[in-house]
Amino acid sequence: MRRVFILSDHTGLTAEAMARALLAQFPEEAYEIQRHPFLDSAAKVEEVAGLIAREEAPLVFSSLVDPAARKRLRELCGERLFDFFETYTPRLEALLGRKARPVTGSLHGIANHGLYQERIRALDFSMVHDDGAVTRNYENADVVLVGVSRSGKTPTCLYLALHHGLQAANYPLVEEDLESPELPTALAPHRHKLVGLTIDPVQLQRIRIQRRSSGRYAALEQCQWEVRQAEALFRRHRIPTIDTTAISIEEIAAHITSEILERPRRRDSS
Q: Average pLDDT by consecutive 10-residue portion of the chain (270 residues)?
């Protein structure tokens, strides 16, 4: 298994996302990823350099801004270093006609304070409106995810809040909802905000067994019935639906933001 180092002077989320996207193109390889965020001093960089030096043929992905730190890594790693700033900054300098002025952590600095606050508010909204606990504020929601239990609603809502600043609520369809041809009372006025999540019943059963293996909850017949009823409800009310069986939370969120929320959506029930 090949060791992969993700280095950043801040959270490292961007570097890790880019690294994973690149590594995903080589599915036959096995990787063990080590994250090293907040490398904001020479001492911290040197400590991680020592770890890298002890590995055999590691891959190193870096979004470090400090030129001295980047030079040290290049000396140590050679072609095994994938330096995102080194890759793109020279081209930007040439196109913009000016030299870059590196600022450590600038991506997440004070200039984005408003964005940070927006995401915190969205996260708070999503947590309060998780699992149908509160439904009276759906008029303030950007999107309401609907689906049977364990279809991926909660993690998707939290991701939408943290990464997109969206106030995302979610509503679990229970048996009473699934037995009715109508939308639940709490959802009906907000049909234009609804997104249905569905899942393969066998996969749903596997997930539910991990949570509660006894009783009808994790029985395959129950999972099949719930998914069938939920999908029929979505079709009846023309609710856009995403199959979460084989895609990641990131992909679900991207589908919601790019293909659903960007569409003009009618606010009537027709």
A: 92 85 87 92 93 93 91 92 89 89 57 73 94 94 97 94 92 97 97 97 95 89 98 97 93 86 50
pTM (predicted TM-score): 0.67
Q: Are 157 and 170 in contact (CB under 8 A)?
A: yes
For domain 112-260, which CATH number applies: 3.40.960, 2.40.128, 2.20.25, 3.40.50?
3.40.50
Q: Supply the pLDDT for residue 6.
A: 95
Domain boundaries, the chain: 2-108, 112-260
- DSSP string computed for 30-71: -EEEEEE----SHHHHHHHHHHHHTSSS-EEEE----HHHHH
Residue 18 has a pLDDT of: 87
